[in-house]
Specification:
rod-shaped; mainly alpha; two-stranded antiparallel ribbon
Length: 89
Amino acid sequence: MFLRVLSQIERIIGHPSHDEQLWLIEQFAHYLRKESLESDAVEQTAFERRLAEVATDSEIRAELREIGKETYAYDSPYRIEGLKIVEVK
């Protein structure tokens, strides 16, 4: 399938003038960049959604609190609040 499409593209590209060929290639590049950016945006949104889910998960928050107690149990000037490390005043 891909080779057939590629063959058709090669035939189409061979007919226009040099300037028209360059324009066509620029259009392909523009399309690919746009598709890539849209895909990246979808992936970023999915990552942020999952990160928000993890940040509000009560089991994960409890585990982070336990890790914080173990890590900062020795007269440390810091403690963990949620997902942040803060200085104890």
